[in-house]
From TrEMBL:
DNA damage keyword on record: no
Organism: Streptomyces griseoluteus
Subunit structure, as described in the record: Homodimer.
Protein task: Specifically catalyzes the decarboxylation of meso-diaminopimelate (meso-DAP) to L-lysine.
Domain of life: Bacteria
UniProt lineage: Bacteria, Bacillati, Actinomycetota, Actinomycetes, Kitasatosporales
Listed name of the protein: Diaminopimelate decarboxylase
């Protein structure tokens, strides 16, 4: 679905616009997002899961009003995890019934707003929250549809900070020790709640399907226990997000149809064995939809060879627009995109303009030895968790997100200005 091309002068274009034009018109750094690629990926998930399942795009990966409208048009639902994400979704006109609200510590105010708005589900993350949401819903004279998030105790093979289903971490209610069963017991007795299902999210940037299979097995096991104890068959399960994408050529991601097939098969099989009605399945991909659809366009500012080591290439952004390298030791690639070069490849480290040496965008990269100030370089696969985790460290202004397609480019999130920064500084 990618519309990235390179012409005979080595100039890269996407969606029919060259990077040199884009840099001129919108400045650098900038996140350049291929709208047709986004839509195609969203549609691929939707199609793979069909009408018996729901796809909730995880807004934390990247959310803006334009994104909400694309999702709406492509038939996806939306997972939000804060009042801010909820406000963005509602302001873009998303039907609240298609919104799921997540988080391990939603505030009373956030819960109230979500219940009032009529969100389709709130995912309950703790015993206190079960009581809290029930109380708020009852006070508003409503019965809120909820799922309970459980931790199934699988180790997802990913970075420790983004794995979420092992036991020693903050999310969900452990299946172990009968805690999840106790949570279900409580939720079923509270008037303010309509318990519609069980939720599990095992982590992020995962390539190996076996963790999902174990999770599905354990979630269905809980459904069976619930049926046996309460005579109730919960109608839904959500297996979370977490599908990995290719950041470098060594990553080999699964396709949505493979995932849909594997999950549907295991849920159906397990339910048949347990003589349960097959629940409606939902998933919550974020990175897999938006990650590959954008690249960050930077201008090279300085090139500093360190004899016998490597060459440091400084760009006009850094850890404020992509914290993932510093935070997770994430791997990225980079390419010269504004011209061709026949020069030998040199070992570089692409770094930002921030005041610390951990400000690394691409740890190890080969770039042509004639790289010079003014060249444009692009770091692919920055659509997810880059703009959404961007900061103002060193009072650097957060870059815009520019959507391209059919020869058009349009800013969907504008570049921050010094005025924006100073507006908050009221001292
Ligand atoms: N559902 C739930 C409940 C989640 O917590 C997450 C991600 C997702 C879905 C979407 O996961 P995805 O499909 O995007 O992997 N900042 C980290 C990733 C944190 C993920 C948090 N939860 C990173 O940059 O890698």
């Amino acid at each position: 679905a990618h519309t990235v091309r390179r012409d005979e002068d080595g100039v890269v274009s996407v969606g029919g616009r060259t990077v040199t034009e884009l840099a001129e018109e919108f400045g650098t750094p900038a996140y350049i997002l291929d709208e047709s690629d986004f839509r195609a990926r969203a549609r691929a998930w939707r199609t793979a899961f069909g009408t018996d399942a729901d796809v909730f795009y995880a807004g934390k990966a990247f959310l803006s009003r334009a994104v909400v409208r694309w999702l709406d048009e492509e038939g996806l639902n939306l997972d939000v995890c804060s009042g801010g994400e909820l406000a963005t979704a509602l302001s873009a006109g998303m039907d609240p019934a298609r919104i799921a609200f997540h988080g391990n510590n939603k505030s009373v105010e956030e819960i109230t707003r979500a219940v009032e708005a009529g969100v389709g589900r709130i995912v309950l993350d703790s015993f206190q929250e079960i009581a809290r949401v029930a109380h708020i819903a009852q006070g508003l004279g409503k019965r809120q549809r909820v799922q309970i998030r459980i931790t199934v105790g699988v180790e997802a093979h990913t970075h420790e900070f983004i794995a979420t289903a092992h036991e020693d971490q903050k999310f969900g209610i452990p299946l172990a020790g009968g805690q999840a069963a106790e949570a279900v017991r409580r939720a079923l007795t509270l008037d303010g709640l309509e318990l519609i299902g069980i939720h599990s999210h095992i982590g992020s940037q995962i390539f190996d399907m076996s963790g999902f299979e174990v999770a599905a097995h354990r979630v269905v096991g809980l459904l069976k226990d619930i049926r046996d104890e309460h005579g109730v068959e919960l109608p839904e399960i959500d297996l979370g997000g977490g599908l990995g994408i290719a950041y470098t050529s060594s990553d080999d991601p699964r396709e949505p149809h493979e995932i849909a097939k594997a999950l549907t098969e295991i849920v159906t099989r397990e339910c048949e064995a347990a003589r349960l009605r097959v629940p409606r399945v939902s998933v919550e991909p974020g990175r897999a939809i938006v990650g590959p659809t954008a690249f960050t366009l930077y201008e090279v500012g300085t090139v500093k060879p360190l004899d016998g080591l490597r060459t440091y290439v400084s760009v006009d952004g850094g850890m404020s627009d992509n914290i993932r390298t510093a935070l997770y030791d994430a791997e990225y690639s980079v390419a010269l995109v504004s011209r061709t070069s026949d020069a030998e490849p040199m070992l570089t480290r692409v770094v930002g303009k921030h005041c610390e040496s951990g400000d690394i965008v691409v740890k190890d990269a080969f770039l042509p030895a004639d790289l010079a100030p003014g060249d444009l370089i692009a770091v692919p696969a920055t659509g997810a968790y880059c703009r959404s985790m961007a900061s103002n460290y060193n009072h650097v202004l957060r870059p815009p997100v520019v959507a391209v397609g059919d020869g058009e480019a349009r800013v969907i999130v504008r570049r921050e200005t010094e005025e924006d920064l100073l507006r908050l500084d009221v001292g």
